[in-house]
Amino acid sequence: MSINLDVLNRRFENEAVESLLACFLESHKGRIALASSFGAEDQVLTDMILNIDPLGKIFTLDTGRLPEETYALMDQTNRKYGIKVDVYCPDRTALEAMYQAQGINGFRDSIENRKTCCHVRKLEPLRRALSELEVWITGLRRSQSPTRETMRLIEWDEGNGLIKLNPLIEWDEERVWDYIKTNKVPYNVLHTQGYPSIGCEPCTRAIREGEELRAGRWWWENPEHKECGLHLKREKQ
Ligand code: SF4
Q: Any idea where the domains of the chain sit in the sequence?
C-alpha cells in the first residue's frame, strides 16, 4: 500500500482528535476499528467514536485472564452506549497446547513463556481482528513508557499490513482524565487503586509513587521487554 505518512501526519498534527477520527471513520467506513482494552484512553476514544458514528466498530481481546473489574467495565460500556463490543478469544487448540507445555501460570517462569502466552492470548486474536481492517485505532500515548517514545500519530503497521492511528499520542494523563470527567465516560475502578495501566490480572499490579506508568505490567521483567508484542514498531515510511 502506498501512503505518504509524512504528508498525512503533517495534515493532521494540529487537528482536533474528533476531526481526525471523523475523517478516518468516513474514509475507511466498515474497515476501521478501535482496539480497546478498556483503559482510560480507550474509553475516551470509545466515547468520541460513538459520538461520531454510533455504529463505529470497537473490539477487545478477551485473554481469559482479565480482572473482574475490566469485565464489569465492558458490561457497563456496552449498556451505556447500546453496543456490543466485538470480542476476540484465543484459539482453543493453541491455548490447550500451551497449557500442556507450560502449565497454567508458566508465563512467570521465563520471558519466552511469557511471550508465548501473550502470543496465544493476545497476538493471534489481534491478527485475526486486524485481518478484516484497513485502519486500527489505538489509545497509545507517547508519555506512557520508554517503548512508546518514537510512535507517531499515523503509522504504517508493517507486521499487520494496515494503518495504525494513535489519536491521543500527544495527550498527557491529565487531559485524558479531564475528558473522562467532563463527559462522564465510564472507567475502570482499578485506575483509582494505583493501576494506571491494566492488562491481565496476574501480570498487572498497582504502581508505587514515582514509578513510571507501566511499571506495574510484567514487573518482574526489565523495562525493554515490557511490551506484549501488540505494539512492536515495524513500520515503513
Ligand atoms: S499479560 Fe500475562 S496472562 Fe496475559 S497474555 Fe500476557 S503473559 Fe499471558
A: 5-193
Grid cell, residue 215, equals: 511499571
d(CA 39, CA 63): 15
- 3 state DSSP class of 114: helix
Nearest-angstrom CA–CA distance, 145 and 216: 12
Confidence of residue 232 (pLDDT cuts 50, 70, 90): low
Residue-wise pLDDT for 142-191, tens only, equals: 987 666 778 999 999 999 999 999 999 999 999 999 999 999 999 999 99
CA atoms in the 13 A half-sphere facing the CB of 83:
21
Binding-site residues, ligand 1, Cβ < 6 A: 63, 65, 107, 114, 117-118, 121-122, 199-200, 202-203, 228
The active-site residue out of 133, 228, 231, 236 is: 228
- Say if residue 89 carries a ligand binding annotation: no
Sign of dihedral through CA atoms 108, 114, 116, 119? positive
Task: Classify 5-193 by CATH class.
Answer: alpha beta
Alpha-carbon distances, residue 164 vs 24, 109, 230 (angstroms): 11, 32, 11
217 CA to centre of ligand 1 in angstroms:
10
